[in-house]
Amino acid sequence: MNSYDIIKKPVITEKSMSEMADRKYTFIVDIRANKYMIKNAIEEIFKVKVERVNTIKMLGKLKRMGKYEGRRPGYKKAIVKLTPDSKTIEFFEGL
């Protein structure tokens, strides 16, 4: 599994944008990835230094279509905190 398979997409919400002031960035990651794999992937892709990684497994939402109900697929979210001497991730700058 390479770095681009681990990091799927960034999460762009009001909360994640406000956390950027604290050098925290949020990504949707592969469900099988652990914290070490996520840290190495972020450092390799964006050329930054990662201080800490927090992960959250999100359960898919319950959806109904008439009398039938099912779930959307679950996913894993990672909140990555960069070190104070690291540069910022330019991907998020223009948003």
Written overview of the protein:
The chain is an alpha+beta fold. The protein has one domain: RRM (RNA recognition motif) domain (Alpha-Beta Plaits). It has three helices and six strands, in the order αβαβαββββ. The chain has helices at 3-6, 14-19, 35-46; strands spanning 7-10, 24-29, 50-58, 62-65, 68-71, 75-82. The radius of gyration is 15 Å and the shape is globular.
Distance between the termini: 29 Å
Q: Give the averaged pLDDT, no decimals.
A: 93
| Whole-number tally of structural domains | 1
Annotated CATH topology:
Alpha-Beta Plaits
Q: What is the strand arrangement across the widest sheet?
A: 1-2-6-3
Which segments are poorly predicted (pLDDT under 50) over 5 or more consecutive residues?
Answer: none
Which term fits the overall shape? globular
